[in-house]
UniProtKB/TrEMBL annotation:
It comes from Microlunatus elymi. Residues 15-30 have a biased composition (Basic and acidic residues). This is Antitoxin. Residues 15-38 are annotated as: Disordered. Pfam families: MT0933_antitox.
Length: 61
């Protein structure tokens, strides 16, 4: 098992933590930009969470 497989296993066991991390990063980016790009940041965060779910679910197939 390679390092990426181990990382994927670790992340798949902690999907909620991955989503929380994405939300925290989005909140920080929104704060740093003074809310000017809130809509775009939210869209990007949702897309990142969906992609992370897709990647982590592939391992279970």
């Amino acid at each position: 098992m390679g390092i990426f497989d181990k990382a994927k296993d670790l992340l798949s066991d902690n999907k909620d933590k991955v989503a929380d991390g994405i939300d925290k990063a989005a909140d920080m980016a929104d704060q740093k930009t003074g809310g000017e790009y809130s809509e775009k940041i939210d869209q990007g965060a949702e897309a990142a969470k969906e992609k992370a779910d897709d990647l982590l679910d592939q391992d279970g197939q």
